[in-house]
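Quick one: structure tokens for this chain, please?
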Amino acid sequence: MSTSDLTLTLLENLGGMDNIESVSNCNTRVRVSVKDKNLINNEELKKIEGVIGIVPFGSQVQIILGPRTSELADVFLNKLKLTNANK
């Protein structure tokens, strides 16, 4: 799955672009803070090709992606026009 397609699929299952408050990342995870955690479809997130795992944590979801993390976080931020707290 392309990074752009993966990003769109993740966004859909995170409740859409309007539900995203912020995005940050480390080496293996993209951390997404959401406005309404009830809009997150955790079961579908786990099934997405390229997702190694997810860790729900309050209003944040950590999506484990391995080596694609940095690339995906950049695409996420470009789509959302947010500032990455790690940069």
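The first helix runs from residue 3 to 13.
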